[in-house]
Amino acid sequence: MRVALVQMAAGLDVDENLATIERLSAGIDADLIVLPEAVMHDFGTPTTPLGPVAQPLDGPFVAHIAGLAKDRAATVIAGMFEASGDDTRPFNTLVALGPDGDLLATYRKAHLYDSFGYRESDRLLAGDVVPAVFDVAGHKLGLLTCYDLRFPEHSRALVDAGANTLVVPAAWVRGPLKEDHWATLVRARAIENTVYLAAAAQCGRAYCGRSMLVDPMGVAVAAAGEAEGVIHGDIDAGRISATRERNPALQHRRAWPSIPSDDG
């Protein structure tokens, strides 16, 4: 499966963001195109209201991405703010549109970024804890968003649901050691689950960029720096099988009991 990861800096104008997506994806020949988190409309500042810009799944943003998927004959994954019924707090949602324009999967971010001095939960609603796994070109893809990388049980749940490739759109905020965390966690989730991991990130002044496709041994098949652009790589089922034969860690798992805390 041929993969294209689009790295860009989204702004607060949906039409301008769509124009950038069209420009960067022009000429892409891939089975899967992955766009970053919040590519419909950026988070802005901590006081930027997100409720008014949220759209339903049958709204114009998803319709445009469906058209893009048809034009590129590819599955396209993109991040948006989805109307939730709460006028002030939408969902942070990933949509996957197939080459025929059909909606293949959605995932509402489950782990909100209440960390490093930021409170995403003040602005967004968390989605249900349900693994989002779907098929593309003979591969099973599992969806995560940005901060979800810090929770290994999430990736493992996707693998247990059949995923052999994890897809992580992100807007990973810059900061001391944050870029190192990003690169380490992307590789760790691939290595521990013996899967490919396709991470497409926002760049620009607020975010670290560094989109990458990592194979089941933790090798970066393709990687970007801090600038906007597109990187390409292949997901090889044979590489997954060979890695799991060499490193059968998933077969060696044992069930560990939950130990209740001592409140005394």
From TrEMBL:
It comes from the Bacteria. Keywords: Hydrolase. GO terms for molecular function: hydrolase activity. The keyword Cell membrane does not apply. Gene3D superfamilies: Carbon-nitrogen hydrolase. Pfam families: CN_hydrolase (PF00795). Residues 1-237 form the CN hydrolase domain. PANTHER family: DEAMINATED GLUTATHIONE AMIDASE, NITRILASE-RELATED. Belongs to the carbon-nitrogen hydrolase superfamily. NIT1/NIT2 family. This is Hydrolase. It comes from Phytoactinopolyspora mesophila.
